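#structure-requests
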Amino acid sequence: MGGTIDTVMEIPGGALHAATRRDLEQDEVVQASTDARLLVEAGPGTGKTFVACRRVAHLIAQGVAPSRIWMISFTRTAIAEIRTRIAGALENPDDALGVRIATLDSHAWALQSGFDAAAKLTGSHDDNIEATLERVRSDQLLQEELERLRHLVIDEAQDILGVRADLVMAIIAALGERCGITAFADEAQSIYGFSEDEARRGDSKTLAVQLREGGFEIVRLRQIHRTDCPRLKAIFGELRATILDWADDVGDLDATVRSEIVRLAHADAGSQGQLDLGVLPPDALVLMRRRIDVLAASNRMGAIPHRLRMSGLPASMAPWVALLLWDFDKPRLPRGVFEALWQARSPQGDPAAAWMQMLEVAGEPGELVDLRRLRSVLGRSSPPAMFCSPEFGVEGPILGTIHASKGREADDVILYLPHEAGEGADASEEVRVLFVGATRARQRLSVGTGSGRGGGAHEGRAWRYASGKGRVQIEIGRAHDLQADGLVGRAAFATESEARAAQALIAQNPLQSEMTARSDHDLGWRFELVTKASERVAVLSPAFRDGVRDIANGAGHRAPTFFPFLRSIGMRSLVVRPDDPVLETLHEPWRSSGFVLAPLLTAFSSAAWKKASR
């Protein structure tokens, strides 16, 4: 590649990247020496991902082995795009496969499991990070492995704090002197996570602050490439400067940011209750502060195709995986058999790309895929992003929380401002949340007023009192509401043929409305999921049943036994790991194959409850 980056780059999805004019600040980062340690302060739209990918490509061109480059991405959904961009900038695109690109949690697990045969994932991500931190500090073999690295790229350093910041700093301490580091950060977008339920705990310093205090060279990207709109540029640049430089009362800052976003927006979107997804472009992005508001809007707009983007949903793994392999029980999959299955079952997608994805995670010499390895990888709670859609649903505008849409952008964005900012230490974060939402737009920003209606959450499950006496709305469709045993298990279906019929319903009718969930004594009061024609599709998990009971008990009521108006907005693959004991509860062929179809189930269903007897 040589000494300079290209001034034009193709961006997936049609995003504007300037790339029509040279950006010397970007060049400075990309072409820095391989051992440089940089903290790149990059505001929204300044080409952070572009520069990060070109930085990696330049390092490889300078002779750094791809396997000795690590990249910490803040989101799983960005990983596939990042790898594609790196490949597009290389003379040999296959070199991109050697770069380890993963989230910090994935890097942590790789470090822990690679040097500890007894390592196990617990239910707590923080516990796993703590265990890895201790190993990085104490394991000489692991430290020697880290010393072999030649460059570390870190994204979203302003959002890494607490034990995660401690882990990254421990990794940096273990790196050799020749290992360079390129970290990207924007304090104006520091919202500490990708869930509106996550909040900054304590006064721990972010990784960005620690790197700045540690003497990293500061480089700034200031040229805005995402948009040519003067209004949006004012938000991206001038309003960002206001947030970073503000030294007065944070309440006044909140009022200033809100008024400026409203003033610079292209249109008034009205109240959240006036939202009509049917008049929006198919790729529009509709952003709200809280999950409960997204659920309510989705429930009200149920008849209009749309997609969801928020925390708490199951991984939307491509359905072709289960459609192809649900009855395949051989240990290895040859390419010829794969192609025959694809032709016979005709799933949507690109067969060549699908085959390459399987080879990347479970390939063996001779054009074979190890099915046990494939299941071990795809059966994780967070399967590889290349197999998953970042949105939950098939088509239509995207309805999501601001947190979950960080890093996402769209030509048209509708942002609903919450009624008021948080208080105390959280108020400044609320300002940054609004800024993140407003800077997702490339061409047009509309601003409306969010709902002030309250609600609660039990272990992440949203609920609230519904209109009408004695009624409640409860979220259905969270990550663990549908499991393999409820889809093809012997307790859910008396015979294999009944399980086959249920799977066929999902495959043949992935879009379903007016489904219901009803509690059944014979199922241990678990809820069966049935179609409008009363055909059983699945049985919801004990976790859902228990969650409903807990919500009801906490409110002094008996649990509802019937939930109407559930929807399936598509289908996904669910993969069971080879060592998962749930396999023993499944019908064949799923017990042997481990590949199951599941609906993209969603609802914020209103049900009746009664006061508990005394």
